[in-house]
Amino acid sequence: RGMGAHRFDHALLYGGNLPETLRLFTEVLGFDLAEQVVDPHGNRIAQFLTVGMKAHDVAFIQHTEQGKLHHASFFLETWDDVLRAADLISMTNTSIDIGPTRHGLTHGKTIYFFDPSGNRNEVFAG
Question: What is the C-alpha separation between 24 and 103, in angstroms, rounded?
Fold first, then answer.
């Protein structure tokens, strides 16, 4: 039924204090830092955290708008599922933001779209 999303996969959030957020998530919640993006000055501008075998469960981007959702992500099995999702999305007059395409970091196949409430969502495989 529908796109066939198997599970909620991860969320990407905005934040203004990445070092303290990292400390909370690693020392208190037990996450591990899986990946980070650092600017030319050595400042961390994005951090991807995991508590399991996935590339990341939650990620934070340095941003002046704090406490905002960048996107929520849902897992699909295959590239064919991603293409089917694109087809279904196009039939509902839903705004597609990016894709279908391939992620630079994880090489996963993905589509970003906006739900009717204005939230950015992603479905991906890989």
Answer: 28
Over range 2-9, report the average pLDDT.
Answer: 88
Number of domains in the chain: 1
28 lies in a domain? no
Return the CATH number at 110.
Answer: 3.10.180.10
103 counts as catalytic: yes
- Domain range for 119 is 71-126
22-44 pLDDT per residue, tens: 999 999 999 999 999 999 999 99
Catalytic member of 14, 35, 63, 103: 103
Q: Is 70 a catalytic residue?
A: no
Residue 112 is a catalytic residue: yes
Task: Assess whether 14 carries a catalytic annotation.
Answer: no
62 Cβ contact list (under 8 Å, min separation 6): 15, 16, 18, 43, 44, 45, 46
pTM of the model: 0.82
